[in-house]
């Protein structure tokens, strides 16, 4: 009997304690918010006031607490419970029930006086709520929508980092909306009513802001990681780990991680945020001890810092084993550890340690944000946009200021190094003077050699240009326009145009592997071989086979390869006969289609006695033919994206109504825009013919 009485008394004591804490919290909110209305008439939200800005619903909602978690929807909407809903104190934007095992029911009336239906969304902008169900009741319909982090993102009515409920209000309706909330985490309820279109736009803007923050964090991490590899200073690696863990903590805090990293992991949503905060604080303690050298500067305080590192390692283990028992201990330990780091930074600043000023200012931002977040989670300050987004703003400021701290440290190291170098320099000035004289002499010789090389290159360029000169009458007869753009002064591309008889013309376009002087010398030599055989009135395939044999006999030792395309254009028969040795396909633009002159054999220089096939096609007056080397499409921009053959073909087709000159200029201009300041990687030659 005594034991039953003791248990009963303990239960009553527990309930009274919880109720007392709740009264204290509400009293604090009363003082903080300046309004303490607990009972009051229910406010009806009029949708005619809903435009591009949201309506905050917290001040207009009535609340019913279910400490035993036993009530269902049918019960709470019964006349018996209708009058038990209270108007509790809240900020303008949100309710804050802190850590509570109770289930909370919220109710609000919404009316649409217009005859036209209104598409809206109700948004609860806090991602760590386990259960969040919405009940929609009007005279015409009833709807129930389940949400919360236990519901997979794919099954939620609106894919978002927050909990979003799309609702259409019919014309001339009065609707009662209920929300059921329960969570082991702090229960914060920033509730907004949005116009559907306005919220879609707002969410896009919000994602842009999030992208900027995480982009900055990633950029800072990558940059300082490179600095770490260069300087081998562990502080930069610690900074990288600190930035990445802080960014992941922010992503977990604001729901970005739930939306993109783990879309269906209730465990992560419930536990990970506080574990990540412990990781961030551990890294901060280690970073502080290294950067401020607290072991030497404040040895007594340094011991406590090491103890706190151990505490922040052990405490999350107990937190995982017993969430309810250790959640508030975790939150308080985070605040104490943050305060300790701030205290150490202040003490080191009094020691006139220059880098401590930067560290103090940086951590002060994060400390303030962490304290605000902790007080909000414990229910001592209201939930609003400032207290929700405060950690993100503090994190951004902290990252930048810590980067300045590392930069200042690096600057100090550089100055110390410069001082040491100045001492060494004073002892080496005499030897440096002698060295400068030798450098001047060597520079003179090198400049003289360079000038000679430039003259030789200029001569080589003129020789190559002269070798490409073709009788202008042939260009006129064929309506041929060309562009020849080597990467340097000379290149590995070349072409030739000759007339076999009154109606037949032969065109060669070729590309030696590589570019520059080496490729140019090979092309000049090969051009000489081709000049001896080009006027044979043989089929292009036979000429190509002879050309390959001569090439292998004379230049196989140069380890160079050659792509080539030989084609004969018969003006009278309106035919094109061609053979291609691994060369990019030429393009024949007809009225309604595009034909490619595909390769008919392998590259020249691979094997003797190579057989080359031959193809023939017909053309009509008004058709257009393009021959080119791979420099036209094998071009890469700074993003390592290739221009590609398909884009080149599309440009040929899109400029069909332009003159050849204009079409080729447009191609080159488009290619230049695509390169976006990047230099071309290969020689470029293009021949256009209006048939």
Automatic annotation (TrEMBL):
GO molecular function terms noted in the UniProt entry: phosphatase activity
Key words, A-Z: Hydrolase, Membrane, Transmembrane, Transmembrane helix
Alphabetical list of InterPro entries matching this protein: 7TMR_DISM_rcpt_extracell_dom1, 7TMR_DISM_rcpt_extracell_dom2, Bact_Sigma-Reg, PPM-type-like_dom_sf, PPM-type_phosphatase-like_dom
Membrane-crossing segments per the record: 211-231, 236-256, 271-291, 303-321, 327-348, 355-378
Signal peptide start-end: none
Residue ranges occupied by any PPM-type phosphatase domain in the UniProt entry: 475-691
Protein name: Serine/threonine protein phosphatase
